[in-house]
UniProtKB/TrEMBL annotation:
Coiled coil feature spans: none
PANTHER family hit by this protein: LYTIC MUREIN TRANSGLYCOSYLASE (PTHR30163:SF8), MEMBRANE-BOUND LYTIC MUREIN TRANSGLYCOSYLASE B (PTHR30163)
Signal peptide: 1-18
Lineage: Bacteria, Pseudomonadati, Pseudomonadota, Alphaproteobacteria, Rhodobacterales
Organism domain of life: Bacteria
Organism: Histidinibacterium aquaticum
GO terms of biological process kind: peptidoglycan catabolic process
Protein known as: Lytic murein transglycosylase
Keywords from the UniProt entry: Signal
């Protein structure tokens, strides 16, 4: 009987710290309260907890998640067609990417020596994600990350990223007001917070890893790909090990094919 009592006590404690998902915007406050218990257990400090308290539900994130049909699963046989969903001209995209690659060739060469990921691939991802830093998003990172984690269709897969966003506030990497993508994506390459915690590196030598610094973001993307199976000096076309490594960055086959297509054109 005592063993059952101990087990019940453990389950009760676990339940206290669990943050159940929500199905209405009005429940966001209660979700934050439950997430706060998890965050404290994960070691989130005062600044991170204050950021959580201040976080507002992201309406754009909620609307996006409430409309799964907007997140098309259509398969595009032609990667150029997929690219033109966002960019009016593939030729212009490739030209811009090639220009950035050539104008900073020594930097991209250094990244490839360090991580094995070629510059044409990184500059293509950068261009697709934020138009080379031209638009990094207008949604508060913490609010977007917590909203995504709260939504039942996404919970609990993205809860670690919400807690990681609070940890980044603690570390001074972001503030409670820092803006990014609608689901809490960060900076030039639109990292999720958990991936930045795992893979963020100092790419420009200033002693800190900042997702809103292009050099740091590009080096961190290469670091993430290498950690997820990228093989230096090997091809990255569809069917290769390096193509499969791209799934760690984005698991959409459409995305992967489009990035590879663009990168191959940039390199030629």
């Amino acid at each position: 009987m005592r063993r059952l009592a101990i087990a019940f006590a453990f389950l009760s404690a676990t339940a206290v710290h669990a943050a159940p998902c929500i199905t209405s915007q009005g429940e966001f406050g209660s979700y934050k309260q439950a997430l706060g218990q998890e965050a404290q257990a994960a070691g989130v400090g005062q600044r991170g907890m204050q950021a959580l308290q201040q976080a507002q539900l992201s309406g754009v994130t909620w609307r996006f998640e409430s409309n799964p049909s907007s997140q098309t699963g259509t398969s595009y046989s032609d990667p150029a067609t997929f690219l033109t969903r966002r960019f009016s001209s593939v030729d212009s995209f490739v030209s811009n990417a090639r220009s950035r690659l050539n104008n900073n060739a020594s930097f991209y060469d250094a990244i490839e020596r360090a991580y094995g990921v070629p510059g044409e691939l990184l500059v293509s991802i950068w261009g697709y994600e934020t138009s080379w830093g031209g638009y990094t998003g207008e949604t508060p990172v913490v609010g977007g990350a917590v909203t995504l984690a709260s939504y039942c269709r996404r919970h609990p897969r993205f809860e670690d990223d919400a807690i990681a966003a609070l940890q980044l506030v603690d570390r001074g990497v972001i503030s409670s007001n820092t803006t990014g993508g609608p689901s809490g994506e960060l900076g030039h390459m639109q990292f999720l917070s958990g991936n930045w915690v795992r893979y963020g590196v100092d790419g420009n030598g200033d002693g800190r890893a900042d997702p809103y610094n292009a050099g740091d973001a590009l080096a961190s993307a290469a670091n993430m790909l290498r950690a997820n199976g990228w093989q230096a000096g090997q091809p990255y076309g569809e069917g290769t090990a390096n193509f499969r490594a791209l799934s760690a960055w984005n698991d959409s086959g459409n995305y992967q094919r489009a990035i590879v297509y663009a990168a191959q054109r940039v390199a030629n």
